[in-house]
Amino acid sequence: MAQSAASIMTTVDGYRNRSPLTEALAQESPAFAAYLARRDLQTHDPNALLLYAAELRLGVDDIDVFASNALTDHSNDKKCDMVAVSNDRGRVVVAQGYEALADKAAAPANKASDLNTAVSWLLAGLLDQVPEKLRSAAEEVRAELRDGSISEFEIWYVHNLPESGNVQNELDQAVITAEAALSRYFPNANVDVRAIEIGRTQLETDYQQSNAPILVSSSRKFTIPGGFEVEGPGWRAYSTAINLADLRAIWADHGVSLMSPNVRDYLGVVKKSGNINHGIKETAKVEPYNFAIYNNGITILTNDYVVDASSLQIEAKGIGIVNGGQTTGAVGEMPLEDIDENTNAQVMTRFVTCTDPTVLGNIVKFNNTQNKVEATDFRSGDAVQSRLREEFARIPDADYRGGRRGGASDAISRSRSLLSDSSVAQSLAAFHGSPNLAYNETRTIWESDGTYASVFRDGLTALHVVLTQSLLVAVDERKRSIGKIPDADRTDIQRRQSLFFSTRGSNHLVVAAVAACMETILDAPVTDTYALTFGARVSPAQAVALWSPLLDIVLAFTAQLLPATDQGLKSKDKVQSSIQNFAAMVAAVRSANTAPFDQFASAVLR
Predict the structure, then answer these.
(1) DSSP class of 373
(2) CB 221 within 8 A of CB 197
């Protein structure tokens, strides 16, 4: 478990003081300076650094919603602080966090070895013996593995100290443990497993990658067969081919720094059927003369390039692989003897230079196959999102971008008033009766035309979004506050609420359940739930405060919702039955305790 805030640091004005070491690092490190500036992360202490790493590496756009479901940190967490399941990316991340007070040569290796325990409990522990905080995560991970939905399993150790060989050795043992458990209990799963020590150097690299598309600034000359150039306002691109031997050589010199435009590092190669990276290696080794036509090629982003037609060479001034990261990594890791320099094995290559920052960002975003174009990018220009952005501009302290992503830099400087695309979509889906869609299939909301139209319908207003999204935020805040109460100090109701909130998707289920009770809460018929708002003068933060007294009452009935969570909200019948039982309890208490309900109802317009 991560160190408790009380045991290592004091609290001032509700926020934890950073460790002296982190504050010292921030004087020289841009990554740690940006981390200290993120006050919103401090509400998640002592897991703030772990979440910061997740933002940089996973592209999380709403840290509160992410933390609500991913954090497992608890006194009996079985050495696991975070289990993040990305259904649409097919990835599981199991992580341990540690923030040292004073500088040391390396992070404690025993905390890395603890991840062996975490992996074992997550993948193989008897569910009735798995602690409640971790049980829901274990159920979800195992279900996704059985369904064949997981292709990547990552093990992280995040800290603020130098990386070390001893720690990596312990992490490698955790990889062996994970692979053994996967092989035994999920024999049909085809999963790449890797472990990453994310210390101060790796955090700095991740931060730089989120800012600068090109980390390798040195120049390099490549022999080419010829080519052609196209250009536009502020950019030029030269299409040609380079030798695989040259590609392997630049990997040997620079490694994953070449991948700076890629948000994620090269995945690694596992010799399993269907593994793309292994197939790249096999083609390069067995049919090198056909590699150029079998492979999709790579795109190299460079500060500038110069073509010498007489010598058939191109000089790239700075190198960043913006597309073709798996190809580069796979070829780069091949033994030298497997790449015959005399075969003229080549890969199609496009060199791109750009001076327009906006176009440059789009080049990275749209060419990066590892950070594929999000469905939200294609919705950002439609009429509903455009209108919502205009309406939000008139709401106090509200920042909604409607699919216009700020990119990885959002992990560095995040607006406190930002309503993220994911939280808005999830809150709308849950509020209007689809908590499973909200939790398990957020991408579907943006990808499917029919689903998108049903959630972001033509009549949707920014004022209604404020009402639904603030409910999700209020539920997340209540979940965090209950989680911070020591087990021994919890009342019986708080213990039941803690058990409920330990399950995955519980926050989205509460939103759906409260929405189902709106006629009871308002004591009036509601013909169109999309028409419900708090009015034009209520900011998102004020809206959260309006929901809070109501949640004080209705969250006492979360035990009625617990049966719906055992399958990650995927049983529609259980979800409907649980919500009906919850609604019946709310109706029973409404007549006996009218004041808080009436007070809330007076704030709602319909």
Answers:
(1) P
(2) no
Task: Take residue 248 and report the two structure tokens written for it.
Answer: 């392997």
**Separation in Å, CA 30 to CA 22, 189, 403:** 12, 40, 28
Determine the pLDDT at residue 341.
Answer: 61
Contacts of 357 (CB under 8 A, 6+ apart): none
On the question of pLDDT at 187 being above 50, the answer is: yes
Please count the helices (runs of H) and the strands (runs of E) in the chain: 27, 15
Of the two residues 324 and 211, the one the predictor is more confident about is 324
For the chain, give the number of residues.
606
**Tens digit of pLDDT for each residue in 55-72?**
888 878 788 888 988 998
Is residue 469 a contact partner of residue 553, using CB atoms and an 8 Å limit? no
Q: Is 234 left (phi over 0), alpha (psi -120 to 50) or beta?
A: left
* 3-state helix/strand/coil string of 456-519: CCCCCCHHHHHHHHHHHHHHHHHHHHHHCCCHHHCCHHHHHHHHHHCCCCHHHHHHHHHHHCHH
Residue ranges with strand state E in 10-57: 11-12, 15-16
Contact present, 313 and 222 (Cβ < 8 Å): yes
* Residue 427: its H or E element: helix 421-431
pLDDT band at 413 (very low <50, low <70, confident <90, very high): low
At which residue do the structure tokens 């080794």 appear? Answer: 285
Long-range Cβ contacts of 173-182 (<8 Å, 24+ apart): 173/113, 173/116, 174/112, 174/113, 174/115, 174/116, 174/118, 174/119, 177/116, 177/119, 177/120, 178/119, 178/123, 178/153, 181/119, 181/120, 181/123, 181/124, 182/123, 182/145, 182/153
Q: Which of 49-63, 266-280, 422-436 has the lowest mean pLDDT?
A: 266-280
Helix, strand, coil shares of the chain, percent, nearest 5, are: 55, 15, 30
CB 442 within 8 A of CB 426: yes
